[in-house]
Write a structure and sequence with these properties.
Elements (H helix, E strand, L loop, with lengths): L2 H15 L4 E5 L7 E6 L2 E11 L2 E8 L8
Antiparallel strand pairs: 1-2, 2-3, 3-4
């Protein structure tokens, strides 16, 4: 994703979740359709960009390990 998109997503997610510790980080492999979702520098998931019929949407995918629920 482009830096401008990442910045907009980061601002949106920080405002939505009322958490200024959220960061959206470009992926190390320079994948153009996704970025990493971090809170307090800890990886929590991936934000995917989807373009369909000229409409752009973003999907946040977060995995939760069962051990973390205990």
């Amino acid at each position: 994703m482009k830096r401008e998109e990442i910045n907009k997503l980061q601002i949106y997610l920080r405002d939505t979740f009322k958490n200024n510790n959220i960061s959206i980080i470009p992926r190390a492999d320079k994948t153009e359709d996704s970025a990493e979702f971090h809170i307090n520098s800890e990886f929590y998931g991936i934000v995917f960009k989807d373009i369909e019929e000229n409409e752009v949407t973003y999907h946040l995918e977060m995995s939760i390990i069962e051990e973390d629920l205990n």
